[in-house]
Design brief:
Strand content: 15-25%
CATH topology of the largest domain: Protocatechuate 3,4-Dioxygenase, subunit A
CATH architecture of the largest domain: Sandwich
Helix content: 25-40%
Number of domains: 2
Structural class: alpha/beta
Distance between the termini: 58 Å
Largest sheet: 5 strands, mixed
Number of helices: 8
Order of helices and strands: HHHHHEEEEEHEEEEEHEEH
Shape: globular
């Protein structure tokens, strides 16, 4: 291998002119690091790392973390990174099961009026969803019980939002996303469509089922160690974008699933729990485009988006309350 330099090279930053006592005691390590953190030029970076360092060091001190425990943690995080592939994101899964994804999502997407609430993205979103027309199917034949999803995309004032891009993905009847199969020739049970001039959307799908998040990696081992199940209630993912509106990432959770209140990734919100209508009418099934049978489940849901201005105002109001120490 060619040698780039004939000697080790620093990053070019000079030693700081700070009072940094030798770290002879645990508390000096924390104090010195906090002083060094103030060198960051970006105020937000200083704020975030000041809080991160303070709480991380408090955790180490309060738990009297052992060397073996910390090394095990490093090995766990190393395994988490090594498990990631271009279609599997174990770090997102780790964030999900620790409730961090749901917490960040909730803080950054405050409820505005009757707007559709957000939910976690999850680790199974891909960029290769095929384009589907209104009424088309996102699932190939034989992937599960028929379902038709329809509704409108609206503003908080009830105005239709035309040409909104709707990405949607789900499991098949086996509880697998297409990316979990060893042979994935093309995307399945996922699609990309647009609302029409009246804000309407509609597509054929299959009824999703409850499923376990991957248990064959470090996150699965963590859940076993904590005595937690790795199940998610059945749900349908939606990501909606339109010019002038904040991107919405959400999911719909049919009622009655036993895992609704103990979702492994804390994604369920009350307003996102939905009800199916059972349809048993062969003429209606053909009208909806289903190739055989007479039964399907109908899921009707209006998606209500917030404008960028509404979102920014809500976030500013939250920041103001936080600054004033309000609950």
């Amino acid at each position: 291998m060619a040698q780039v330099n004939d000697h080790a090279v620093s990053n070019g930053i000079a030693a700081p002119a700070l009072d940094l006592p030798f770290p002879d005691k645990p508390e000096i390590i924390t104090a010195n690091l906090l002083k060094l953190t103030e060198l960051a030029s970006n105020p937000r970076t200083r704020f975030v790392f000041r809080n991160l360092i303070t709480k991380l060091h408090e955790f180490v001190d309060e738990t009297s973390l052992t060397t073996d425990e910390w090394m095990s943690t490093i090995q766990f995080l190393t395994r988490t990174g090594q498990t990631c592939t271009n279609i599997r994101q174990e770090f997102i899964l780790l964030s999900d099961v620790l409730g961090v994804s749901a917490l960040v999502d909730s803080i950054n997407n405050p409820l505005i009026g009757t707007s559709t609430e957000s939910s976690v993205l999850g680790p199974f979103f891909t960029e290769d969803a095929p384009e589907v027309e209104h009424g088309d199917s996102i699932a190939s034949e034989g992937k599960g019980e028929y379902m038709y999803v329809e509704g409108r995309v609206l503003s908080t004032t009830g105005e239709p939002v035309p040409n909104a891009v709707i990405e949607t993905w789900e499991t098949d009847e086996n509880g697998f996303y297409d990316t979990q199969y060893s042979q994935r020739d093309k995307p399945d049970c996922r699609g990309r469509l647009r609302s029409n001039a009246k804000g309407e959307y509609g597509y054929r799908a299959v009824v999703p089922v409850a499923y376990p998040i991957p248990g064959d990696g470090p996150v699965g081992d963590l859940l076993l160690a904590l005595g937690r199940h790795n199940m998610r209630p059945n749900h349908l993912h939606l990501m909606v974008e339109a010019p002038g509106y904040k991107k919405l990432i959400t999911a719909l959770y049919p009622e009655g699933d036993e895992y609704l209140s103990s979702d492994a990734v804390f994604g369920v919100k009350k307003s996102l729990v939905v009800t199916y209508t059972q349809v048993d009418d062969e003429a209606e099934a053909r009208k909806r485009g289903f190739p055989k049978g007479s039964k399907f489940k109908l899921l009707n849901f209006d998606i209500i988006l917030v404008t960028n201005e509404e979102s920014q105002a809500a976030l500013a109001q939250r920041a103001k309350k936080d600054a004033n120490g309000a609950v």
